[in-house]
Structure formats: C-alpha cells, structure tokens
Amino acid sequence: MPEQVKILLSEDNDDIRKILSMRLEVAGYKVLQARDGEEAMESVKKEKPDIVVLDLMMPKLSGFEVCRMMKFDDRYKDIPVIVLSALEQQKDREKAFETGADAYFIKPFDLGLLINKIQELTLQEG
Amino acid sequence: MMKKGFGISTKISLIFLALFVCILIVIFSALGSVFYATVRNREIGRLQVMADSAADHIETYLKKSLMGLDLVAGRNNLKELWVSYMDDPRNEYLEKMRKILETAVKSTEGIERIMLASLDGKVVVSTDTEMRGKDISGESFFTTERGACILPENGVYKVFAVVPVVIDGKLSGTGVLVTGIEPIQAIISEIDGDEITDEVLVAVKGPAGKIYFPIEPKFRDETTDPSWYDVRVSQMLEDALKGNLGELAGEKDYREKKIIAAAGYVKTAGILLLAKIDEEEAYKEARQLVKIFSVAFIVSVMLFIVAGRVVSGKITSSLKILREGTEIIGAGNLEHRVATKTLDEVGELSRAFDKMTLELKNRTTSREWFFAALEGIAEGVILTDAKGKITTVNPVARDMIGWGGTEASSGWINEVLVIKDETTGERIEDPVLRTLASAQPVKVSGNAVLVNRLGKNVSVACSASPIRNKNTGDVMGAILVFWDVTERKEREKRLRYLSTAVEQSPACVVITNKEGNIEYVNPKFVKLTGYSFEEAVGQNPKILKSGKQNEKVYAKLWETIISGGEWRGEFLNKKKNGELYWESASISAIRDNVGNITHFVAVKEDITDRKRFEYELKKAHDEVRQILKKAPFGVMLIDKERTILWLNDTALDLIQSDSVDDVIGEKCEQYFCSGTEDGCPALNTGGLDNEETAIRSLDGREIPILRTVREIEIQGEKVLLETFTEISELKNAQQRIKDSEAKYRTLVENMPGIVYRCVNDSEWTMLFMSDEIQRLTGYPGSDFINNAERTFAGIIHEEDRASTKKEIDQAFSSGELYDVEYRIVCADGRTVWVKDKGRGIFNEKGKIGWLDGVIVDITIQKKAEEELEETVAMQTEFTSTVSHELRTPLTTIKAGVSIVLDGIAGKLNPEQKDFLETVSRNVDRLGRLINDVLDFQRLKSGKEKFVMEPGDINKVVEENYKDMQAEAADRGLNFSVVLGKDIPEIMFDKDAITRVLVNLLSNAFKFTEKGKVVISTAAKPEENVVEVSISDTGCGIKESEIYKLFDEYVQLDKGKDRKPGGTGLGLAICRKLIMAHGGRIWAESEYGKGSRFSFILPIQERRDPRG
User: Fold this and answer.
1) What is the H or E stretch that residue A18 is in?
2) Is the CB of A19 less than 8 angstroms away from the CB of B904?
3) Which chain B residues have any C-beta within 8 angstroms of a chain A C-beta?
4) What is d(CA B85, CA B399) in angstroms, rounded to the nearest whole number?
C-alpha cells in the first residue's frame, strides 16, 4: 500500500464512531472523524478523503444532505459514499441511491461486509 | 182749425242748428286741448334737447380739463420731483415743478393756473406763484377725489378741476386746474342763442347749499323775487343728484311768468341746466290760430240760420193746401180735388191724392159684390194684405180654423192658420206668406193638415194667390182658398197599403178576370215562374200546369171558388223553363158592391224547398237517433225539471232496465246524483266536465262512471245532455296502483336509509327523497324536490362535491353501480358522513334518465376508522422510533463483538469464541426481529404501498427457485419446481410476492432435515384464482396448532428441534401481504411427515375503468 487510503467517518454516536474507526484503522485505513454533518462537509473540503462513510441521521446536516452536497460539487462528486442507516425501508434505500450513495448498510450491519465494500469502492477508485 | 205753432221747417232748422253748435263746440275744445298739449310737448322736447346738449358739452369740456390735468399730474418727471421735494424740500425742485406746470398752462388756452397741493391742503407749487404756500383746505373745491366744480373766487366764477396725485399707488397730493367760466358761457350762449325766447340757466350748488348762477340769466331783473331759484331750482338740483331730471310746465318762474322748462345735469360738476321758455312765448302762434277759428265759426252759424228760414217757408206752402184738401175728403166729400200747382214732391203727392180719391169712389161699389160671394162659397177663403195681416175670413174658413170672424180679422195669417206636414209633424211654411214673398201662386196638397184652434187636425189642400194692383201690378195682398181632403186621403192611403202588400208579398199573387184570364201578377210571381208581367197578362193560369196533378183537383177548385168559397191546396206546377215546383195556394173570388163576381185572386207560396227539407230532415233525424241509440257510451236528455226525456241503449243497459218506458219520465236523481232535488250540479252551471260519479242501476248496484253534462237548447227548450261511460275497470286498476304505491311508500319511508331518485345533473335535482333525510340532515325531503333554493348538491360538503359527482359519472359510463362516501352539511351545521349506493336508470333511448340510490349514515364508522388510523399512525411512529433507538446500540454491540471475534482485541480461547458467537447470532436475530416488527406494523396500518402490475407468476416463482437453489443444495435438500400451464397474467406486487416466497421457502428449508421441497404453481379457472404451493417433507405441524400459524408473534413449539432465528412474524407478514392482494394463504400438514403452504391470488378481469 504505497499510500494510506483516507476514510472520512461521519457518525454522531460516539460509541459506534469509536469502534468503527478503531476497526478501520486496524484494517489499515487512515480514519478522519466527524461528529455531525457540518464537520463532515468541512472535512471533505479540507482533507479530500478517498471515501466517506456517512450516518444518515446526524445533527446540523443529515447524511442525505451531505451526500447531496458532495454529489452536486464537481470536486467531490467522485468520492464514493457509503451510507449507514437505521432506516430499513426500501424507499429509504432508494432515496439514498438517488442522492448518489454508492452503498447502503442497515444498522446493525456486519463489519466484515462494510470493510469489503470499502475495499471494493477504493480499489475501483485506485 | 189748429193752433199755429212753429212750422216743421223752423223746428228742423232749430234742432239741426243746436246740434251743429254743440258738435262744433265739443270738437273745438277737444282739438284745442290736443293742440295745446302737442305744442307743449314739442316745446319740452326741444328744451330737453337743449338742456341735454348743454349738459353734454359742459360734461365733455370738464372731462377734457380733468384729462389734461391727469396727464400733467401723471408725468413721471413731475412725480419724481414731487417725491424728491417731499423728502427734501428744496426750492430747485419747486422751480422745476412750476416750470412743468407752466408749460402745461401755456400749451392750452383758457387755463388760469395749475396748482399741486399736499394732502393737508397746502399749495406746494402753483403756476401762480402767489398761491404758493396758501392753505386751500378750506376751499369748497378742495378734495382728494377726482372731480370738477364751478365756484366763485374773489367774486368771479371759475371752473375748478381736481385730480388726486397718486404716486406708487399711494395718494400723496391733489392737483387743481383752474379755468375761467368763459368757455362754459360760450357753450350756453351757443345753445340758447341770443333770442329772447329760449334761455338755459346754469345752476350750481355752492357751499352751505347755496345755489349760484355763474352765468347771469338773460331776463334777470333786480325787481324780481330771487327766492324762486333757492326753492324750485334747488329742489330740481336735489332731484337731479338722485337721478330724477324733472321738467316744468305751467309753473311761474322768478318773474311771476308761466314757463315751460326741461332740465339737464352735468354729473362731473353737479351742475343743473334748466332750458326754459315763457309759456306766452311758446303758445303765441297757437293762440292766434284759435282766434281766427272762433270768428269763422260765429259767422257760419248766423248764415245757416238765415238760409234755413227762407227754404222751409217755400217747402211748407203747398203742404198746407194738401192738408186742407185731405180734411175735406176725409169728411166724406169724394168729389173734392186738391190740385196744387207745384212740381215738386208735394205737388206729385197732391195729384196722386186726387187719383186715389177717384179710385176710392169706384171701388166702394164692387167691394160689396165681392163680399157677398165670399159668404156663399164652399171653400174656406182668407184675404190678407201685403204683409200677411188678415183682412177678411169667410164663414167656411171660420168654421175650419175655429176662429171667430172678428178675432181672425185682426190677426196675422201665420197666427191664425197653422198648417203642418202630417208625416213629420212640422209646420209647413205659410202659403200666404210664400205667395206674398214670391208674388206667385202657391199650392199645398198631399200631407198638409190644418190644425184648428182646438188642436184638431183636418187634412186640407190649399191654394194661395197674390192680389195685384190692377194698374201697377204690385202685390197688394193675397187670397187663400182651402178645402177639406180628409176623406179622399184616407181612401188613397188604404189603396196604397194594399198595393204595396201585394207588390212586396213573398207569395205569388195572381188576379184573373171572371173568365180566368190573368189581369195582374205580382213581382214574386214573375220571379218564381219566369214569366214576365207582359207574358202573363191575358194568359190563363193553365200555362203553369205540370200535367202531374190530378185533374179532379182543378174541378174541385172551380166548384169551390165559383160558389164563393175559398180554395186551399198544393199544386205541383211547372216554371217557364220547365222546372217543376211545389206551391201552396189560396184562391177566392172578388165581388163588386152588389155581390157579383168580377175577378178571382190566387195567393200562392213556393214550398219546394220546404218539401225537400222536410224529407231530408226526417232522414237525418232517423240516422242521428240510431247512432245515438247505439253509441257505446250512455246518452241521456234531461229537462229542467230533471225529468229524463230520452236515453240510449247503453244508458239503458247500465241502469239494467229492459224498457225505455220504465226510465223515461223518471227524475234523474233516481239514477245519478245522490244529492237532493234542488242540488242539481249541472243545472245553471253550464254543465260538468269529466265528473267521476256512479250510476245506480235498478238492482241497486253503484256503477262508477265518468260523465260530462252540457246544457243545450232543443226547440227553444233548455235541456241537459248527459253523456257517460263506465269506468269500473279503470277504478279497479287505479285502486291497485294506489295500494301498491302505498306499500312501497311505507317500505321506503321505514327504511333506515334515505331512498332517493334524482336527475343526473350538477344540482342533484331530486324527484323523490324519503323522509329519513330529515332525521339525518334536519331538512325535510320535500325541500329538495324541484327546489332551486335548496338542492341536494348544495348540502354536500364543498370538498366532496366535485369528486363525488365525478365518481358517480364514472360509474355510469361503465354501467356499474356507484358506491361513494361523502360528507353532508346538516341544517344545524353538523357534518355527517354518508355512504351513497345507487345506479343510473336508463330510459328507452339509453340516456340516463335518473339516479336511484340509498344514502346511509356512516358517520360513526367513519369516526371509528379515523380514530383507528390515528392510533395506527401513532403506533407506527412509536415503533419506528423504538426500532431506531434499538438499532444504534445493537450496531455497537455487533461491531464490538465482531472485533473481539476477529481477534483484533486479542486471541480468544474456544470457549470465549463460542459464547461470543452466540451473542453475535442473537444480535442478528434482534436485528431481524426489529425489521419484521416494523414491516408488520406497516402492513397492519395499511401504510405499505403496493405496486400492483400485471405479470406472470411463473416467472417470479422461477426466479426465486433459482435464488434459493444454492441454499437448498447447502442443506442437502431435493428442491424442485413445477410450473403450471396456461396461467393467466395476474395483478401483483413483485417485491411482496418475492418476500412471501422467500419466507415460505426459508421456513420449508429450515424445518426440513432431509427430503424434498417442491414449489408449484397452478391456474384454477373455476375459482378464478392462481395457486402457488410449497410442500416439504419436514417435521410438519400439529393439527391443533395450524390455526395459530399465521398469528403474530407465534412460534410453535418445536421441541428439541427448535432452531433459533425466527421472529414469529414471518407468516403473519405473509398473510398480510397476500390479503392485500385480495388472496388467501393457508397451511396443511401431517405432523411428522411434512407441510404444504399455499396461497391463491385472484385473476382479475383486466378492465379499463373508462372502457
């Protein structure tokens, strides 16, 4: 791995964020953390992550909004977005994909599957 | 002899003279006063012109002076100097101003001086340097207003013109221009001249009201009383100031002489001008003329008297002789002759007088003869003079007119003799007077009647002739002869009546002579037979014989009439053109006064038409009678006393009588009206129309009938024509309809829903609406029937109106029943929910005629539904939140466990790993449980939206089969699919069906240790469904538990075989999904051997709602 892949993890729940970031770092990624939508957006602009993992229900800016803002901006629209959500309905999933998300995980999700997806999306990128 | 008085001529002369004098005096005095008035007026006019002219000239002169002064005072350099001087009183300014004024004085002749004074009346500058510094404020002329006046200064009259000096719109001084009186004097003398006759006085009102005469009057004389000026002129001047210019006439002036005067007024200076002339002077010529006239008048009167005396004496001398002669003849001496010699009228008169005397002598003799003849004559004779005054009436005339001889003799002819027209009753113009007027004989006959003194009428004929003077031919009187014609007129009248009767008779009249030859036929005969009068006369009536008459008739005819009887009978005769005709004749003889037959007369009438008519009438009558008799409706004739006169067979049948005679003559109320005798409903009302009543038959039955009664006239008799028809059947049918209607009405009214019928229009115009509507809405059903004010559409909730209407219209177009729910706003404002089910009723033409439907109140159900919906929504919301809150910690747990299990947190021993794997499995199960709970909740609340699309169920089954093959293989199960043939396309949501299939297959796999799982499809057209079944060879389900299978949160006791992972909601969800498709799901099982889960989906006719 010549250069570490940067993951922006945006999740308001501290526990989830802590565990996830720990697991992703173990998996060899550089993890940037954001506690809400605004932080996420700032981080995207500043750090230009390789991939973004977004919780949908966040304070200030929701995951949908962050995703939409990125996908409408030519500079960030190619950054893959993985959405994490407690909304399990089909329509929510569809909405996420319409907004531009590349993957959709319903909580509780399998960490292994998430890491697989991240690998898949970043490799494509690479 | 008579006393000698004034002769006629003297009298006439005196009277005329007196009259002449009187008239002349009146004329002269009238003319005189007119003449004097004219002269005076002319003088006043002339004087007025003078006064006005003088006033005008003076006015003009004064205005000119004022204007000149204006020009001077208005000069700018003067004004500037004036202002400068006022600021700084330097002599050089004064000098300059004086020079300017001087220039002005020199430029115009007659100006004495010009002064400019300050406002307080000090002379500032003057052309006359002596005036400088003088105070003129006390002077009468001094004023600050524009004007002029004439005043004495140092005993000399001068004209003062005064103008205000205005600088910059501010009054700052007064300019005074002084001229001598001479120009005015010149004007006056130019106007009144030097002659002594006219004089114009100039009067000015000076200080203290004093009057000045600036120009000395011509006639002023020191001895005369000057107070006249003060009083009279002062008065006139006052009047002039008020605008009344007077005139004077006949008043005496200061010299005590009468004058005529007119006044003029100079407004600018307040000067009165009085133009006057002495009356003596003015009337001088007039008086001269009057004197001459008076002298001429007296001379002519005297000449007149002398001439009159001479002429009258001449005329009266021969009259005197005539008077004396007349006195002699009047005394009886008819031999005396007057014989004057004069040739004038009196001479002629005396000669005529002599002639008259001679004639008088001759006449006296013949007159006696004439009167004797009058006494004896048979006719009435009346003589009158030329004016119509009666002179003589003979005895016959006296008797006829009923006036005594002496009474009549003194009367006028038109008083005594009254002749009238017998027919008109109007008086005929008196024949005597007519004769006298025309000088021609006049005859009166015909209708004349003489009305005698007692008012009795006598028919007369009369003849009047003028009596002429033998010599001159002049009419000197008239003679009227008249005689009684009463008898003759009566005869003539009777004959005329008879003749007219015969001529006009509508019957033929034929008169023959004794031999039977026609002597007369009347016009009717000519018209009827075609033979003219000339053709008929001389012929025998046999010419009319048709030859179709029995000859015996003629023989009998002759026998009868010759014996003197009258024959009556009918002939069939022949006209000239051969046409036959019937006549009825009456023939009898005419006898002379001794009883011998001279003629025969036949009166005959054409009766051909009558004969034919009688025949046809009889025929028609029989036909009508037969038609009426057999008519299929009852006919009856009833007279005014309600007695039945006639009835036809149908009426007879209805009454159930065998014989007409039983009924005719009876009273009608016996069969018809149950009313009393005097309560006949048809009498005097003109009749009845379609009255439903009953007829009482003889056997006592009441048969319902519909009758119409008319009052008609038959042979002048008013009778009732009653027609009727039996309506028993109709009545029965009506009753049946009524009963049936009542039944349905009760049914409808008692129904717990509102039954209606309405027109399919935007207003829902109701044709019927059951009263249940009132209980629901508070509006009675009748409110909506054809009432534009309250329509049913009007009470439907605004938001529902359009959609409901649309839904109903759609149901119509597809021919289906409609079933709609909407809100209604009640009378009290409440809103209720109703369900309205109905259908369009089509008329014969296939168009919608109306809507029939039932409305049911579903407010309670609606409310319950709404509440339920709310509860469900709350529940969903709650579960959703809970689920989210659950997921978050679960995620942490799962992730944490996963990390530990992966050994990232350190190596685990097998025991630890086993525990954590258990934890991980249960976390997964919890996650699924949350999913299922949410799914189920959503389905239960009906929030799940399905996408129903037509599709092939086999395709979906096959896809699922393929997806699940791997898992089946893992489990080592025999998994197969059997797809049914000819399965139609059905409507389903692919995701939902996939979920059901996955669930059922997962269950089958889970509970089947070994063996096979089969999924199959089949069409069941007889049930109109498609069936999908999944059978396994698994553990099966106990019969007692099968019914619980599809309940929520149920997990069957599987004993030791129980495997974790189920949520207990899977089948419940499946059931909900299938039910949402309108299908059914069920399970069959043999415990320990296997189960079979099946579901069916309905095959729907794919119908386009608008097709």
Assistant:
1) helix A14-26
2) no
3) 883-884, 887-896, 898-899, 902, 904, 923-924, 927, 930-931, 934, 938, 991
4) 137
3-state secondary structure of B1082: strand
Q: Which residues of B touch A86 (CB under 8 A)?
A: 883-884, 887-888
pLDDT per position as a tens digit, B421-475:
888 888 888 888 888 888 888 888 777 888 888 888 888 888 888 888 888 888 8
Distance CA B485, CA B493 (A): 12
Ramachandran assignment for B350, one of left (phi > 0), alpha (psi -120 to 50 degrees), beta (any other): alpha
Provide the b/e sequence for B196-207 (b: ≥16 CB within 10 Å).
eebbbbbbbbbe
Q: Kind and range of the H or E element at A33?
A: strand A30-34
User: Which pLDDT belongs to residue B5?
Assistant: 56
Q: State the average pLDDT over residues B681-710.
A: 81
Instruction: With CA atoms as reference, report the closest residue to B272 among B326, B227, B229.
Output: B229
Task: Give tens-digit pLDDT for B1049-1094.
Answer: 666 555 444 454 566 778 888 888 898 888 899 988 888 888 899 9
H-state helical runs in B570-700: 608-630, 649-655, 660-663
Cα atoms in the Cβ-side hemisphere of radius 13 Å centred on B338: 29
* Residue at token pair 């919301």: B877
Find, among B923, B900, B927, the residue nearest to B912 by Cα. B900
Judged by CB atoms closer than 8 Å, whether chains meet at B892 and A19 is answered as yes
CB B1076 within 8 A of CB B939: yes
- Parallel, antiparallel, or unpaired: how do β-strands B508-513 and B518-521 relate? antiparallel
**Burial (CB count within 10 angstroms: exposed 0-12, middle 13-18, buried 19+), residue B384:** buried
Please write the tens of the pLDDT for every residue from B658-674.
Answer: 888 888 888 887 787 65
Q: How far away is chain B from the Cα of A10, in angstroms, using its nearest Cα? A: 14
The pTM of the whole model exceeds 0.80: no
DSSP assignment of B251-319 equals EE-TTS-EEEEEEEEETTTTEEEEEEEEHHHHTHHHHHHHHHHHHHHHHHHHHHHHHHHHHHHHHHHHH
* Residue B254 φ then ψ, to 5°: -60, -15
Question: CB of B513 within 8 A of CB of B592?
Answer: no
Is residue B8 within a helix (H) or strand (E), and if so which, with residue range?
helix B8-73
Choose the closest CB to B888 out of A86, A87, A112: A86
One-letter amino acid of B636 = M
Distance CA B482, CA B14 (A): 57
